[in-house]
Amino acid sequence: MAFPTHRPRRLREQPTVRKMVQETRLTKANLIFPLFVDENLCEPAPISAMPGQCRWPISHIPKPVEAAKEKGIQAFLLFGVPKTKDSVGSSARSENGVVPTVLRSLNKEFPGTLFISDICLCAYTDHGHCGMLDEKGSILNDKSLPLLTEMAVQHARAGSGMIAPSDMMDGRIQSIRTGLDQAGFSKIPIMAYSAKYASSFYGPFREAADSSPQSGDRKGYQMAPANRREALYEMELDWQEGADILMVKPAMPYLDIIREARNTFSCPIAAYQVSGEFSMIKAAAAKGWMDEKSAILESLTSIHRAGADLIISYFSPEVTEWLND
Ligand code: PBG
Q1: Is 274 in the pocket of ligand 1 (CB under 6 A)?
Q2: How far is Cα of residue 255 from the mean position of the Cα atoms in its chain?
Q3: From the CB of 202, is ligand 1 less than 6 Å away?
Q4: How far is the CA of 201 from the centre of ligand 1 (A)?
């Protein structure tokens, strides 16, 4: 009794019906917009591999925030590029570091807006790795934890509304949760980059954040793209250590992981549509090989459909504007 009784196309024929039965809907409340603040700049510096995105000087940062807010963005993820780098990323823990400085001024200028802090050492170390290194160049996991924790506490003091650790050290969520609680920030949530893969799709970001490893790669701490069970293991650990939101990153090549996370955990799941995903769509659209607007909407709707409650995307402001239409 399938065909001709059953005709799925009946619900696709009329635009109104099509909209009515749409299963997944993006809203502006789902979207987070990343911004790069560079302490070395006096003028905005366009990021060549990410058309339309800039590194912003501290004094100019209200401009992109205001523009994105006008389009409906309520949440921002801040990345800092510091003036000074050393082997232990000291500038990441300074009260007057680049991100604490902008947090104080942005909170004053835009009350009620959520500013999320990325917590990682890679942009602050001269070697470009996400943790401290020993003399042979291998990561000192446990010694990196207090450094990351102090960074998180400094950001919370400066007014960060959410802490997002992206370093992939073992035990960092527990260490940061304890540190925040002891400093009086038990109400500040942690969004953990839990299933963070060692991905080629971060290429353009490393130009943006000036955070490429000077030697080696991140395969010793970020996850292998071939692994799915391990992602659930990482997420389980972060959940037990006190994460409030679990993230999968990148997004589109890892939709299966997002779905698995959504089916396994009851907490909100986030996904990061990373720089390379952004650049791919931009580059193909610039060549006339894809329609930019529909490719962007399809990519974000698919990430949401896969199970991501929150999506971090460089497209967020344009998308919120389209959602208003
Ligand atoms: C820092 C960090 C990275 C990204 C977010 N936080 C890069 C990396 O791990 O090399 C990637 C974001 C993007 O590509 O858009 N560790």
Answers
A1: yes
A2: 16
A3: yes
A4: 9
